Write the structure tokens for this entry.
Amino acid sequence: PALASLLTRVITREGFGEMRLHFHFRGNLRYYLAAWFGPSLFIAVGAAVYFLVFPAQLDPSAASFAAQLGVPADQLRSLLLSQIALGVLAGPLINVVPALGEELGWRGYLLPRLLKITTPAKAVLLSGVIWGVWHAPMIAMGHNYGTGYLLWPWAGIAAMTVFCIAVGIFLAWIAEKTDSAWPCAMAHAGLNAVAGTAAYFTVAGGNPFVGPLPTGIIGGIGFLVCAAVLFALLPKWLPASHSTVED
């Protein structure tokens, strides 16, 4: 996506302004904190709800996963907890450059251009749909949802699109409040760092369409609720005659 945005700028001769590469820290610390810790919080909420609904699936010792790997459960559990802590605290920074490879395209280019040609609500939703459909080849190859399920691969593509719409609304809020792609890349990187961790503490890995991973309808409840609230408040943070930089 970043490369596509650069090529588009060259082809259309629009130049390289408004790339959202400035950090804009001043006055925006709360949005950077939301970007850093928000995805981990939403993932934790989704996993908690999933295990409340399906308590028999919870394996807090990670013994099932350890048995699959053939390693002692206590050693694996300590390693997993360390990795989770590292993912939450450092993942948004460690993975920020690869994530920027997407965010320069999605929130750095696509969303601002859509906002120029349609309403904020349509722009936010359409950017999420395009982001989700962009994953279609990977989903068809089995990423996130596997293969061979009912309505494969269309059900997986649809589920990923819903997930991307929800996450995309959260990232759009951050992008419009900071006028920067960097906090979006941080949030994206943090999401990638811890997205799969809840599955290690299940008896059978869970269900990719249900949970505990955030791409499932229950595992993703944190993102879905956040997206619903932000979308309901859309006129307040992204009015039709909006300014992309917060006062």
Observations:
- Confidence is low (pLDDT under 50) at residues 243-247.
- DSSP finds eleven helices and no strands in the chain.
- The two ends are 29 Å apart (CA to CA).
